[in-house]
Amino acid sequence: MLRWLHLQSCNISTFPAFLKSQESLEDLDLSNNKISGAVPNWVWKKSLQSLNLSNNKLEGKLPRSLANCTMLYAVNLGNNTLHDTFPLWLGKLPGLMVLILRANRFYGPIKHLENNFPKLDVLDIASNNFSGQLSIEFFQATHKLRSLKINGNNLEGKLPRSLANCKRLEVLDLGKNMIHDTFPYWLVKLPLLKVLILRSNRFYGSIKFFEDGNAFPMLHILDLAYNNFSGEVSVDFFQSLRGMMVIDGNKVKPSYVGDNYYYKDSVTIVNRGFEIFYQKILTLLTCLDLSNNNFHGRILEEVQDLKSLHVLNLSYNGLFGPIPSALGSLTELESLDLSRNSFSGKIPPQLTSLTFLAVLNLSYNQLDGRIPESNQFGTFSNDSYIGNPRLCGVPLTRKCNEVGSKMLPPKEDEDLWIDGLSVWKVVVMGYGCGLVIGFSIGYTVLNEFGNKWIAIFIQNWNQKRRRSK
């Protein structure tokens, strides 16, 4: 009798018939195939401990007979077309640690029962049609969660404060919902939190912290993009990101978040201008994305404390003032996006020390002067600087004047209009003077030449007349 069967990526389209007789099967993996339709009841063996049917074409409802598999600790049914409500009844499985239902057609509210899911470590129900509010009781029941992914649904309302009871939480992805709340500062109480994704919701207001201490000591990915956050990015905010202040020296043997044999965490973030899906999350990867909000004010020098940053995206906000030279201290930085703000002044030459910088976007600001040319700056294209009419130098076609290191000092719009008018006056006067002088010379030459021609013509006519007589 078989104890485990792995037939992943074998291009099979039906459940193997010989499974009917395998009553001792503990580990079944039929993922990444073309199996369609409903799951037959004879697949659910009471001996099953791990079940992976992900990335197939399964449809219909989850059979309640799955609850009879009381030995199960891992269930992965992701990326199918299953259509059902939240399987609350699975919460009665005493040893269930991993439940993955992502990318199906599950719908309705996420319900709860007391003492459900007592050992649940991973819950991934992303990319479904779940709706309603997250209940306080749900997180009280699932307080042992290490990874929670409910992104890509239709959840709304406020975040329940009971989420702070999940002291083991390392990954929290709430992105692409309709959650309407202020910044959940109380999440600083989660000592192990490494990844926090709140992007594409309806969070609003300024980001405030009401307690000191070792806030977010492990956090290395924070994505707040596409919300309605406002106000200044404060000193307290930068100082709270403790996990981004230390460079992990272990680059020879990198580790991953949730690195165990039954599950590896994944995440989607915007890096180098593209939305990238990471099947594994390197603990080395450090990302801060505050783009597409309503932040204003200056970037404070304290940003230089975030030594381990690889990705910094502050685009599409109302930030202004000079680009701080302190950014040159972020030596691990690979992607820097400050586009669509109101930054002014020169590009700090200190940024040329960012030798790992692969992507730079400073477009659509109010920068001026010469673009630095050394190190990585020699690799960036026009797109990095477009929308800054006062910038000059390579790679732009606008040349800086040969004497100085910048273009001639620009004036206000009104002065530029007057200057333009003055230039045209000079041009018109030049043309006018040219035309007057040209007509005068032409008239004089033609007049003298014409008089001589008429005199000769009359003289010749008189001579012919005399001969005819």
Automatic annotation (TrEMBL):
Membrane topology type: Single-pass type I membrane protein
Top-rank taxon, per record: Eukaryota
Keywords from the named record: Cell membrane, Glycoprotein, Leucine-rich repeat, Membrane, Receptor, Repeat, Signal, Transmembrane, Transmembrane helix
Chief location of this protein within or outside the cell: membrane
Subcellular location: Cell membrane
Membership in a protein family: Belongs to the RLP family.
Protein name, per record: Receptor-like protein 12
Organism: Gossypium klotzschianum
Species classification: Eukaryota, Viridiplantae, Streptophyta, Embryophyta, Tracheophyta
